[in-house]
Amino acid sequence: MPKIAGNIEFTNFSKSEYLLHDTIQNHYVKISNEVYDLLCLIDGKKSIHDIIIAYNNQYDLELTEEFVHDLLYKKLQPYGLLEGENENLKKYKKPGYLNLSFIIFNENLLKKITPFFGFLFKSKISICVIILCIGIIGSCLYYHFDLYSSFNLRNSLIYFFILMAMSTTFHEIGHASSANYFGAKHGGIGGGFYLFTPVYYADVTDVWRLPKKQRIVVNLAGMYFELIFCSLIVVFATLILKNSFLAVLASIVCIKTLNNLNPFLRSDGYWIFSDIINKPNLMSHAGKKVLSIFSKKQKKWKGEDFLLFFYGLISYSIILLFVYYVIIKNPNSILLFPKNLYNFFKNLFTRGAEFSFSEFAQLLVPMLFFYLLFNFIKGFIISKKDKLSKS
């Protein structure tokens, strides 16, 4: 007599899909409308045999007990679907692309802050704020164009990084505030490393329960808040401090946030594109779609299938071009990497030695190469283990 666990919630995700949410382990699993209809027949009183008869009679199908048993107890139960079945439950894991992550502002502290920013997401207010902020940033760059064109960022890195840290914090508060405004839960704000680059992140996984348009707004909210923050700094620097340098620096930081629209890195652009085509694991789906062209069994493609295919094709092309550049065009960066890394840290901690950010930037290329190589080998080993365990 299977029974749905009390910690399981269902949310309509799209026209053909529902979202199964385990509120304890914080798992989110997409299921089809057909699977959802089957799960709705589970009430703790019917046996699997009775559920199958009711479902087959209702939809004129011929589901077997073996199929339904595997679906419930092997595929869905690891996500906490059934009450009293606590074996082989999957524990929540942090995203694999985020390394050395840690919490900076915990969930309880953030919950005290986010409600105050809800008014910024009302449509009329948000439109006025965006137009005003764009006008402020644009005017700053226009009237201080000479200072901007001759701006030496290297001599101002410490100020730039401080302003960047403050702006990025506000960026993540924007994500959390928008999630709270639309009724989704949010976790804390943390830090970590993505492709050897320090990053901030806000845990807003629960927004998958929201409609597509609201999810896109949540993903755009970070840049929206950075625009507001930088505009306030420009106004404060211009009217109060009379400091054109700080105003231009804030404008540069504001322009920098447009990098988040890049859909080929796991930033806001990636999640926006993922929301548009309703694919939470975008990179994985895109890779499978590219490989599917070599399959003998070809299904008729829809519009989103073509989007996934071209997205995956471009992603793989970028990786191949990067590998070609490293191995063919610049092999010394790989061969001399240990020596260059040793010399860099030696100079970094040697008094009187020159510290060069350009040297550090050159180290990032081989570091990224070894990171990709490590993930490829790890994925290959895991896939081999999975095949052996299934056999």
UniProtKB/TrEMBL annotation:
Gene Ontology BP annotations: membrane protein intracellular domain proteolysis
Q: Name one GO molecular function term.
A: metalloendopeptidase activity
Is this entry keyworded Membrane? Answer: yes
| Cellular component GO terms, alphabetical | cytoplasm; membrane
Secretion signal, residue range per the UniProt entry: none
Q: Which residues form a coiled coil?
A: none
What name has this protein been given in UniProt? Peptidase, M50 family protein
Lineage at the top is:
Bacteria, Pseudomonadati, Bacteroidota, Flavobacteriia, Flavobacteriales
